[in-house]
Amino acid sequence: MVVGESGLGKSTLINSLFLTDLYKDRKVPTGESLVEKTVTIEKKTIEIEERGVKLRLTVVDTPGFGDAVNCEEGWKTVERYVDEQFNKFFQDESGLNRKNIQDHRVHCCLYFVPPYGHGLRQMDVEFMRRLHRKVNIVPVIAKSDTLTKPEINKLKSNIMNDIETHKIKIYQFPECDSDEDEDFKQQDRELKASIPFAVIGSNCVIEVAGKKMRGRQYPWGIVEVENTAHCDFVKLRTMLISTHMQDMKEVTQDIHYENFRAQCISQMQQVALKERNKLKRESAANFDTVGDADRLLQQKDEEIRRMQEMLNQMQEKLKESGKEPAVSLALDPGKRDSVVNV
Ligand code: GDP
């Protein structure tokens, strides 16, 4: 996923990274539309081949992010999208056809920081804080050819300080195994020291000393996208589609998705518990109603018994006075509405 405001060179970088032209039919937003613009999600799938391995890669763009006058809640659309993918995976995993799940979860989020500031802006901090527990955030400094080497170093260190101050957890590169060879260890150290990657993108292929390469031609010289002395593009590319792709997928599965899953399960448990409590309360209320009805019936029986006693006494008195009753009266408490047996 690529996130950053319009014009920071996201499309150009994606095209440079995967050597495609993914944004042929793109409509660049006008100034007027930017004011009210909301963040949208655009997905594009490409097939790339890396060292003979075919990869299906989905690039998720977030046009409109950071473009509106009020971009306080720009992160919400992105968060919703990330959650939706987790949720879809959760549903698929709980279904019957678990073997053929299509994984659309976001494994990496390239967050573009503009080169013209002094570090992270409030908007950047807010985005990262809202999403760092859901997705692997890899910050990059956009259009780094606009800065000198010392300026880049200063900006990098400011960004890392901001990340630390705000307790943001960007993607943590795994520790290198102790038995790796020294070259690999050195490469790993350099990679970690380069974060946030200062990148340059270009849609143009330029010929330099008989060699064709992606670069940006200025009146004063050429910036080569794939030259490690010019920018961190190669480091980013290698890390993304080669050295750290698997780790980012594992972190997504084992940490971010597991967090989401645990939350889902605890919410489901809470709902089930509420339902059970509700049922309990209802059955207790029903039990009370039954109790009331029983009490009424008992009272009625009691009344009938008393009436029966009175009748018996009256009959006794009539017998004593020598007058035979014309009818024998009886009340049957079993049949509560039978009053007279003739
Ligand atoms: P998006 O809106 O973030 O996708 O930005 P685009 O990729 O469309 O780039 C916006 C403008 O910036 C275009 O004119 C690009 O040619 C230019 N651009 C892209 N990448 C770079 C870069 O690395 N350095 C400089 N100086 N300009 C760039």
Automatic annotation (TrEMBL):
Location of the region described as Disordered in the Swiss-Prot/TrEMBL record: 318-342
Domain Septin-type G: 1-267
Cited Gene3D superfamilies: P-loop containing nucleotide triphosphate hydrolases
Biased composition (Basic and acidic residues): 333-342
Biological process terms in GO annotation: cell division
Domain of life according to the entry: Eukaryota
Residue ranges the record marks as coiled coil: none
Gene Ontology MF annotations: GTP binding
SUPFAM superfamilies: P-loop containing nucleoside triphosphate hydrolases
Keyword annotations: Cell cycle, Cell division, Cytoplasm, GTP-binding, Nucleotide-binding
InterPro entries recorded: G_SEPTIN_dom, P-loop_NTPase, Septin
This protein's GO CC annotations: cytoplasm
Subcellular location: Cytoplasm
UniProt xrefs under Pfam families: Septin (PF00735)
Major localisation: cytoplasm
Family classification: Belongs to the TRAFAC class TrmE-Era-EngA-EngB-Septin-like GTPase superfamily. Septin GTPase family.
Name under which the protein is recorded: Septin-type G domain-containing protein
Organism: Scylla paramamosain
